[in-house]
Specification:
Length: 302
């Protein structure tokens, strides 16, 4: 497998800060990068639905002079006909890179094992690194300095939480995951983030105490039920409701802004009042998906 972007866990702070700088430069001067992918094609292989990731990669690649081929794999096309390694090998015959949204992280590794082109993780069970980079781009625009920034992630411990913790730990942020008992982030991901934070001067914590969101700079939430999870809302609503981000929680926390990777479920993990308020960075975050991803693409293909 060529060097792609699967997790960010192996990146240094310097490398991530360079990507953030590149994303800002692409955002300010897109014309300077209009030929980076000239003559190149990127395949986007999606086992799960997507609005932001699919469209921001397609339009972003177009702005870099490249061509995006969307491959809908939501009907199980990745299993049964041939091995994942063979799929990777065949795609690499024509494509210069593969963007993949998959159920299992292992799928990315197996596709990559056969593909002699970079593989970019567009979300899996463990990580959402493109989202993570866009989130810190947004925070950097809002706050300037990222080192020492205090972020509370409130809700279900999931792929978005893991990438927020890992990238934040590398950059020296304090990331508090505040989740109902039984819905904490994956302990192995927390351990990895703690190890990275120990090197950067950052801090990682996990608790079920809602009051732990007090004193942070920014609040972050995501869906209570991720794609592919068949849990019914009625089964978990009672446990999650105290973790809903609303104006009262926001005001008590002292945070300046609220983030959400979207899709958002209004009235569940976040109220419309907060989501539509002046404290919301949600659309800036969505726009930044494209700029962050283009920084990744530029760094891989320049
Ligand atoms: N945030 C995000 O990845 O959105 P989509 O699922 O719409 O791509
Ligand atoms: N945690 C969510 C993120 C969606 C962008 C999911 O995996 O469905």
């Amino acid at each position: 497998m060529q060097q792609g972007l699967l997790t960010f866990a192996e990146h240094s702070a310097e490398q991530i800060n360079q990507l953030l700088q590149l994303a800002k430069d692409f955002k300010a001067n897109p014309a300077n990068y209009s030929q980076v992918l000239a003559g190149k094609s990127i395949v986007g292989l999606f086992e799960k639905p997507s609005l932001r990731t699919r469209v921001s990669f397609d339009i972003g690649i177009n702005k870099l002079g490249g061509h995006f081929v969307y491959l809908d794999c939501q009907d199980g096309q990745l299993s049964g006909r041939e091995t994942l390694k063979d799929i990777g090998g065949n795609l690499a015959c024509w494509a210069d890179g593969i963007v993949a949204r998959v159920f299992k992280h292992q799928t990315l590794l197996e596709i990559g094992a056969g593909a002699d082109v970079p593989v970019i993780n567009a979300l899996c069970d463990l990580y959402h690194p493109c989202q993570g980079l866009a989130d810190y781009l947004t925070l950097s625009e809002a706050f300037g300095e990222l080192k020492g920034l205090k972020i509370a992630y409130v809700g279900d411990g999931n792929n978005v939480t893991h990438s927020l913790m890992i990238v934040g730990a590398i950059l020296g942020c304090e990331v508090r995951a505040i989740c109902p008992e039984g819905y904490f982030p994956d302990p192995a991901m927390v351990a990895k983030a703690e190890q990275l934070a120990a090197q950067s001067g950052g801090k990682i914590s996990v608790s079920s105490k809602v009051e732990d969101m007090h004193g942070v700079d920014v609040l972050y939430t995501d869906t209570w039920i991720s794609m592919g999870d068949n849990t019914k809302l009625e089964q978990i609503e009672q446990a999650f409701m105290p973790y809903q981000l609303n104006m009262q929680q926001f005001n008590q926390s002292g945070a300046k802004y609220v983030l959400h990777c979207q899709p958002a479920h209004r009235g569940q993990e976040i109220t419309s009042e907060l989501m539509d308020s002046g404290y919301s960075l949600l659309l800036q975050q969505a726009e930044n998906r494209m700029h962050a991803q283009n920084a990744i693409l530029i760094s891989l293909f320049k």
